[in-house]
Amino acid sequence: MNTKDLITRAIAGTIYIVVILIGLLGGRFWFMPIFAAILGFGLYEFYRMVEKNTTHAISKIFNIFSGVLIFFTAFLFLEKINLFAFPAAILAYLLALYMSAIIVNRYDILHAIIYSVFGQMYITLPLCLLMLLSYHFNLFDEKFHYVPGLAIFVFIWVNDTAAYFIGSLIGKHKFIPRISPKKSVEGFIAGIVFTVIAGLIFAHLIPEYPTDFWIIFAFVVSIFGTLGDLFESLIKRTYDLKDAGTLIPGHGGILDRIDSVLIALPASYLFLMAYFELAIR
What is the distance between the alpha carbons of residues 197 and 206, in angstroms, rounded to a whole number? Predict the structure, then answer.
């Protein structure tokens, strides 16, 4: 990679990080539009990939609109502005898919419906969980707080960076070469170690949460974040693609940047729910 490409990659990466931080630190009214946009781009890249080498009819516009609408109505639900819009949006989406199966005369329409629903489960649902945990799992007297979401993104960034550099320097044992030939066992272990260290730093900076909480949280994000990265690599390998998109120069698409987060979020939500439940008892 030449100097110009490195500079482009660094600038694009910095802009991406700044946008994420604004969405997390700026409060819920910044979170909503920024992550709705990220969701929209992610859905576009996913549906564009899966329709690349298939005859299945997949409406990107319909699925992107539906995903963003579900995300927005989840926000209305959590804000207690409208408690009916969220389940109504999900029902309307499923009914539209059901009606398409009846009306569209194609032998493969069921495949298109499966791809459509999976895209929402893969991308929309985790980002809704990101919003949900920001409302529900914090020890501060605020309706919405950035700490859980910020911790997940920082842990993912630390994990990916450590795994890449340590793996490049001393990685000799391939992790899962069938899916991701460049990942190494050494990089995987380094990612966990450095992410746990990041957890200890969070424990020092935000002592409202105990140290054991941060260590386990960091470990969970590291493990499941790696699985998320591998899963997206499997999707790209299936469709013979290097990147999911080109939105972020030198980094690929939005989906290439949030792939680890998508699997780490459900795991993090379960961990937070279990930890807070035990803490209450």
Answer: 14
pLDDT tens digit string along 57-116?
Answer: 678 999 999 999 999 999 999 999 999 999 999 999 999 999 988 887 777 778 888 899
Q: What is the pLDDT of residue 281?
A: 61
pLDDT the model gives residue 249: 84
Q: What is the pLDDT of residue 53?
A: 65
DSSP collapsed to 3 states, the chain: CCHHHHHHHHHHHHHHHHHHHHHHHCCHHHHHHHHHHHHHHHHHHHHHHHCCCCCCCCCHHHHHHHHHHHHHHHHHHHCCCCCCHHHHHHHHHHHHHHHHHHHCCCCCHHHHHHHHHHHHHHHHHHHHHHHHHHHHCCCCCCCCCCHHHHHHHHHHHHHHHHHHHHHHHHCCCEEECCCEEEEEHHHHHHHHHHHHHHHHHHHHHCCCCCHHHHHHHHHHHHHHHHHHHHHHHHHHHHCCCCCCCCCECCCECHHHHHHHHHHHHHHHHHHHHHHHHHHHC
Question: What backbone phi and psi angles, to 5 degrees, belong to 153?
Answer: -65, -45
Residue among 44, 90, 46, 88 nearest 66 (CA): 90
Residue spans of the chain under pLDDT 50: none
**Could you tell me the two tokens for 102?**
């009846």
Say if strands 174-176 and 180-184 run parallel, antiparallel, or are unpaired: antiparallel
**pLDDT reported for residue 79:** 93
- Please state the length of the chain: 281
Q: What are phi and psi of 183, to 5 degrees?
A: -80, 140
| Residue recorded with tokens 């919003």 | 131
